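The records we work with from here on pair a chain with its fold. Taken together, the tokens spell out the fold as the letters spell out the chain. To see the layout at work, look at the sequence and tokens printed below.
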Amino acid sequence: MSNRSTVILGSGKDQSLRRFHPWVFSGAIKKIKGPVFDGDVVDVYSNHDEYLGSGHYQQGSIAVRMLSFGEGQYGEDFWMQKIKRAVEFRRNAGLLGQKDTNVCRLIYAEGDGLPGLIVDYYNGSAVLQAHSIGMHREREAICKALREAMGNELHTIYDKSAESLHRQEGYAATNGYLLGESTGGTEVLENGHRFHIDWESGQKTGFFIDQRDNRALLGRYSAGRAVLNTFCYTGGFSVYAGKAGATLVHSVDASKKAIELTNRNMELNGISNHEAVAMDTFEYLKDKDNAYDLIILDPPAFAKHVNVKHNAVMGYKRLNAEAIRKIRPGGIIFTFSCSQVVDRNLFASTVMAAAITTGRSVRVLHHLTQPADHPVNIYHPEGEYLKGLVIYVE
């Protein structure tokens, strides 16, 4: 028995943990024994005094994020074992050690049994982002385990948790290097395409790794087509389209910095038939009837909480309807949602509703999701956040 504080669940509130779901909601807790503070590791028991596992405690709707279940108790070698397993998974899946790709997600939160932790790997550099106070407090142990698991493949670790923890009252996180020092970012290869990564000032950890497979698929459809990439950020889809032989590529983003990043990446890859515009996507599309054969719609999350889900659905419907109206006959649209509260069925229904408003004939070519380095824990379906459709418009 540990000397940690204990969380006792109410009667019948232990069923989700018995199915290995990694979240304990605040409403499931009957009482807490001992003093407990945000970020502490607590032991979780059923109403009948049965040990169920251990996890990080934090005030909020999700009160405990489970790190271990049953007899696999949280102990001193926990971080080394978990992180080695996460790295080994990527090696076995062919995601590390490739000649033409040196960027991947090393740790994907619940998908790797480490809720609240994201680690992305960029050609020798790891960018860590904690989404819970407990994970941030463990950053030194995480850093040590990453160094052990990656060996000489890792020379830099940057902690970028200030943005993800900024809403945690009374807790201050500062971005900084846990290993190595600032280099102004790095250049990576993804399927042979070159990208500059700036994790210090870029969004998230610097790059949207989760679209790698979908960018590769886009390349198969881009040759001979006029392509529009909306919400382009660093221009990932634009690079793939240009390299695959698009007749022209236009990139649009409301952020001027994103446009600068896109232009830099297009130049890195020697793509000249490209124009980038800093403008709102809806405003840009207003006078673009029949201008494009292929349009990418990859907006930021329209909804991060259930209470704004309706507004998000309306936003996705409006965006997709506008693109379906504007695209040339025989055109293709890659459309995505990264809103976790909008599931794949709701997203597909929303795109269908958008198509209905236009009166055009639309067929689904592909259903898309996140790649293997963003694995979905079968006991935690909420981990599947990225949904996409490729549609053909008559």
